[in-house]
From TrEMBL:
Annotated protein name in UniProt: Cytochrome c-type biogenesis protein CcsB
InterPro entries: Cyt_c_assembly (IPR002541), Cyt_c_biogenesis_CcsA/CcmC (IPR045062)
Domain spans labelled Cytochrome c assembly protein: 67-259
Source organism: Malonomonas rubra DSM 5091
Upper lineage: Bacteria, Pseudomonadati, Thermodesulfobacteriota, Desulfuromonadia, Desulfuromonadales
Residues annotated as signal peptide: none
Amino acid sequence: MMELQTSLLYAVFAAYCGAVLFYFVHLPLRRSWLWRTAFSLVLAGFALQTVCLALRWYSGGYLPVTNLFSTQFFFSWALAATYLYFELRYRIHAAGLFVIFCTLLLLGSVLQRSAEIPPLIPMLDTPLFTLHVSLSFGGYAFFAMAFSLGVLYLLQKRLQTGLLPDLLLLRKMNEEAVFLGFCLFTLCMIFGSIWAYVAWGYYFSWNIKGVWSALVWLFYAGMCHAKFIRRWQGSGYAALSIVGFGLVLFTYLGIGLLMSSNHPLD
């Protein structure tokens, strides 16, 4: 089973590599067959990654998101799903290149790590844990897309190039990515609070991961309101999307690498 999962992982990595390559070539050449090939490779990679995730879930008996390998694998899967959502809805093509590239980086960083699935500790053995973590990374993936769209908005405003979607569409997609990410992250916080109460008897703990997660939620709650304020629309909103993803990255990786936390997944 582990050998099959490893083979699938390398096949997924190869598919996403091919997609990034074809999207890069598509940017200057603008040939329809190039983006179709790239999109087909993303679809193939996502399908294989879904199979690999299902196999890991089946062999472990739970959604495997309890160590760095597993969370990066699941995060990359969520990023690919988010890209596919925007591609099917808006036909963004190579405009989603950053998210696919992030997916590739996440997968590449775990290829040499152990894919073993550790036993589940009792406090995590609940559907609330699965809902909390999966919704968290779903929100992170939409925030990553918002970051990408924010960068593209600022570039398009400066360059006014036909290689990128127009400003109105980029703004619309950015606001949608933030809103959907905020909805998923809100559900993540709700289920996480219920899980904490069931496991420890309180809804919120002042550990560093919990505090920064609350800050991320507050930041994106503010962004959901900022889109209605004229001075924050457009470039200001794009800049907030970039700053927000920095908070997300610090909450996800920075705390575990740089600080001490008593959060169960650190």
